[in-house]
Each structure stands twice: as structure tokens, then as C-alpha cells.
Amino acid sequence: MEKRELICIGCPMGCPLTVELEGGEVISVTGHTCKRGDVYARKEVTNPTRIVTSTVKVLEGKADMVSVKTREDIPKGKIFDCVRALKDVTVKAPVHIGDVIVPDIAGTGVDMVATKQVL
Hints:
Layout lengths: L1 E6 L8 E7 L2 E6 L4 H12 L2 E2 L2 E7 L5 E6 L3 E2 L3 H8 L3 E3 L7 E3 L9 E3 L5
Parallel strand pairs: 5-8
Antiparallel strand pairs: 1-2, 2-3, 4-7, 5-6, 6-10, 9-10
């Protein structure tokens, strides 16, 4: 049986979690004080995902850059592909919060969207 130790990021408590696995399947999760801890631990050891944040260049705007993020979490293994896909992206002002900057970033099925307005 395999054991993994995690710190939960599901809420501000930061509970120390212990996940027991057998054959890649979660057998038990202990240490959580709320339901979010159990959900987080199971997902983290079987299919870890992350929200990716970055910036892209803006032309003809009051700011040179706009902050962006993935609309949803993506597989952890796709983070660097996502960042590489943003390297040469430039958008023209105006940019509004929620505008799709790159659809289906790095083939994840998730859009990269603006998180700030640049006029």
C-alpha cells in the first residue's frame, strides 16, 4: 500500500492529509476537517490539475500587458505547453475581462481569458 502526504489547499485551514492508495486507487483519506479536503486529496493523487495565470502583450493600450488565466483548471502536465503557447501572443486594445485571448490553449479544451480590462 502506498501513502502520500499532502497539505490541503481546498480552504484556508491547510489540513495535513494522508492518502492511502492501492493499485492507483484511493483507499482512504485522513486528516481533513471538511469535505473539500477529501475531494482535493482524491483529485490531486489521481488527476492533478491547475489554473494557469500569466500575461500577454497589448498593442495600442494604456497598459503594455494584460493578465490572463485559464477559464478552468487544466491537467498539470499541460502547464508548460500552455505557457509556451502564450509566448508570442499579442492582443490589440481594448481588452475586457473575460475576453477569450487563446481558445483551447495547448489543446486542453480550455480557453485562456483576460482577467483585467485594458483600454
